Sequence to fold (221 residues):
Amino acid sequence: MSRKPKYSYEDKVTACEDYLSGRRSLKKIAHDFGLKAVNGHIRHWINVFHEHGAEGLLISKKNPSYSKDFKIKVVEEYTNGVGSILDLATKHKIKSIETLRRWILQYNSDMELKDYDPKQEVYMAEARRKTTMEERKEIVAYCIEHDRDYKNTADKYDVSYSQVYSWAHKYDTSGEEGLTDKRGHHKSDGEIDELEKLLRENKRLKRQLEERDMTVELLKK
Fold:
């Protein structure tokens, strides 16, 4: 599942061609995109277009993978004055200048830069299998011990990302009691009135939307 881009490939190419040919200024392009001022994204598109051609602006169907070593290399180039954020993002074909800014911030905050290999099937999968209480306790413990790395925890235990996130959140609020599988302890749909059915459905849909929004935000990283 790919993310819908804010600006289309065609819009970006046209903007770059117009700027380089003199048909539109940066200020006019920003205005046409509904921006109050020229931002780094527009300058990044133009740099990429100039350096790598229109192909450099193609929208990938999946998030790119970045190794820890690659991140450190690029950040150290920045700290050593090899180039600006804009220059280095263009040189190394990093799709977003915000991505590089985040790496620099983490590096300067003494936070570990980690390998990033997006496994979208882990993020998007529905609940994969039933689990026991003991399994859920073990999964949550592993997740917490590993800096709440929900993605790799889900991959390790063959469960979905949303399951791990939900269990960890329930553990935070209710302890081990929150990990109890209470399905089956509720009345069946045939035993409740229409109002309660609607309330259940509303709660279920709200939970799905929250998990979907959470997934989309994480896939932007």
Observations:
- Residues 62-117 form one domain.
- The chain has three domains: 7-59, 62-117, 120-219.
- The two ends are 15 Å apart (CA to CA).
- Residues 58 and 157 are 35 Å apart (CA to CA).
